[in-house]
Amino acid sequence: MKLIEVNNLVFSYDKKINVVDGVSFSVESGKYISIIGHNGSGKSTIAKLLIGLLEPSKDSIKAFGLDLNAKNLGAIRSRIGIVFQNPDNQFVGSTVRDDIAFGLENRRVPHEQMDEIINKFAEKVRMSEFLDKEPENLSGGQKQRVAIAGILAMNPDLIIFDEATSMLDPKGKREVRETIDLMRKENPNLSIISITHDLEEAFSSDEVIVLKKGKIVGHDKPENILENPGIFVESGVDLPFKSKFVNLLSQVGIEIKNDESLERIVEELCQ
Amino acid sequence: MPINFKNVFYTYSEKTPFRHEALKGVSLTINDGSFTCIVGHTGCGKSTLIQQLNGLLIPTSGSVDVNEYHIEKKNKSLKKLHDLRKEVGVVFQFSEYQLFEETIEDDVAFGPMNFGMKKEDVLKIAHECLKTVGIPEDYYKKSPFEISGGEKRRVAIAGILALQPKTLVLDEPTAGLDPRGTKYILDLFKKLNEQGTTIVFVTHDINIVYEYATDVIVMNEGKVVLQTVPEKLFAEDVEQYSLETPLIQKTVNLLQAKGMKLDVSKIRSLEDLVKEIAEARK
Ligand SMILES: Nc1ncnc2c1ncn2[C@@H]1O[C@H](COP(=O)(O)OP(=O)(O)OP(=O)(O)O)[C@@H](O)[C@H]1O
Ligand SMILES: Nc1ncnc2c1ncn2[C@@H]1O[C@H](COP(=O)(O)OP(=O)(O)OP(=O)(O)O)[C@@H](O)[C@H]1O
Ligand SMILES: [Mg+2]
Ligand SMILES: [Mg+2]
């Protein structure tokens, strides 16, 4: 089933330049999709359009089978969670606990269940000790953890992460990914759209969308999308480490046949 | 002159229920002309530490020496801090809070203006710095709030470059930059470093430490647990400091385990590694 259908989406902030310029894609239920692209390519704008924070061109977005319009906005929003690029734009509560609780109240979670949910997700992002602190007085990575916990706790059907783990330490990043994978196991319909500059993350998702100047220049499974490396270079996005390594080797006359993993490449090099 | 921390403690919101001791007796030296990377887990005190470098935060106890400035609680003078901030430029972790003027060019020009330069000279510098960070001309009159996250980061960096500080302090400056921009900006810092600017660089990206750092400071729970050079750090098992192994180092380790002889002292980048592999296979 298609959770999201985007059809010829166009958007301009100044009514002159289309920063989103005829974008079409769909998100199948249960998929983890990464969006990559240069700074200013339109990623965050698309995210804001998907949750109706900006007004999309007419009939261009369908979510959960409903047209995204004023009438359906409430119903659609209640099923989508978004973690913004700057976590401070997310916080509403005066403590971490209130902040997570606020989202739950919005989703009409019964009060007697709240504490358990809050504790569970604070624990998952290792912020249990900080529940009574003010979100604005946390470190950068702690803010991102809280923002993520708040959205996961709401149990949405679709989560949009806009560079949500950009300031986490490597362990934190890994733990967030494990938490999401676990949630996807428990709920196979949970879908993820992750906007990221982390190519290793992008290449571990189900599909990668490459954006350049408001247009999609590539959309495929990670293993296929690398067949056309030109689009990465053109769109300000580098190649992942493994591909760069294989390319450089080839430039000095060493051709690698199997580049499935770093270990395989090393094996070939040492034959 | 090197930067010296002597037994620095820093406590946020003292005498309130939110009291939090973020630095717990930090002593360290940052050498003149070094490219010093500061690493450590989320919340270990990196941002708190670097804000002591230009007097934005003053140690609760202990002292910080930066060039000829001595920063200590009982000895804070606003005049001195103003001068210090011309020498030590800090790019914050969240660039939004660094932007405030109506247009991008005014924003970048603000710093040098504040330090007494003439408007026309300043605008010229501002434009140069914006060009350096990859912000196109048609952005100059735009509001710094109506641009993308990575563009904001670039403008914030330009604003500090415009001050031409002797010491450049960067708190995760590549978070939010696209990979090409990251490489470009890192090479720019490297060039400035080679021309004499001291770089203090907070990051979670261990690959950057591997390729660019001359010195590394590892923090843990408000303390410095290690101050060393990358060669020594990566010769050890870095996971004991909850750090990852850089991808190049990982590849080197795998190759060596399979018996390839590599001159590790020559490897700083992927290009170097490939060259050494070609050598070894001859
Ligand atoms: N509020 C705004 N008003 C006007 N223009 C904007 C606004 N926000 C973004 N833009 C412009 O729209 C384009 C797309 O911005 P967007 O934030 O979607 O990019 P992005 O792909 O998320 O980039 P980044 O990787 O830097 O976060 C950019 O050219 C940007 O300058
Ligand atoms: N304004 C503040 N008031 C109270 N506590 C604070 C404040 N700012 C930071 N802290 C706390 O001080 C500790 C150190 O924070 P700091 O921002 O220095 O960490 P960091 O190493 O930069 O982390 P990150 O990698 O997440 O950016 C954290 O536990 C944080 O919660
Ligand atoms: Mg963005
Ligand atoms: Mg920080």
Query: SS-based structural class of chain A?
Result: alpha/beta
Per DSSP, what share of the residues of chain B sits in E-state strands of 2 or more residues? 15-25%
- Radius of gyration over C-alpha positions of chain A, nearest whole angstrom: 20 Å
Name the average pLDDT of chain A: 94
CATH topology-level fold name of the largest domain in chain B: Rossmann fold
Assign the CATH superfamily of the largest domain in chain B.
P-loop containing nucleotide triphosphate hydrolases
Please report the total strand number of chain A as a whole number. Answer: 10
Low-confidence stretches of chain B: none
Write out the strand line-up for the largest beta sheet of chain A, numbering strands in chain order: 6-7-8-3-9-10
How far do the termini of chain A sit from each other? 47 Å
Main β-sheet description of chain A: 6 strands, mixed
CATH fold topology of the largest domain in chain A = Rossmann fold
Q: Which CATH class of the largest domain in chain B is shown?
A: Alpha Beta
**Oligomeric state of the chains in view:** heterodimer
Side-by-side strand order of the widest sheet of chain B? 6-7-8-3-9-10
Order of helices and strands of chain B: EEEHEEHEHHHEHEHEEHHH
**Helicity range of chain B:** 25-40%
Beta content of chain A: 15-25%
Q: Considering residues with a beta carbon less than 8 A from a beta carbon on another chain, report the largest interface and each chain's count.
A: A-B, 47 and 52 residues
Number of helices of chain B: 10
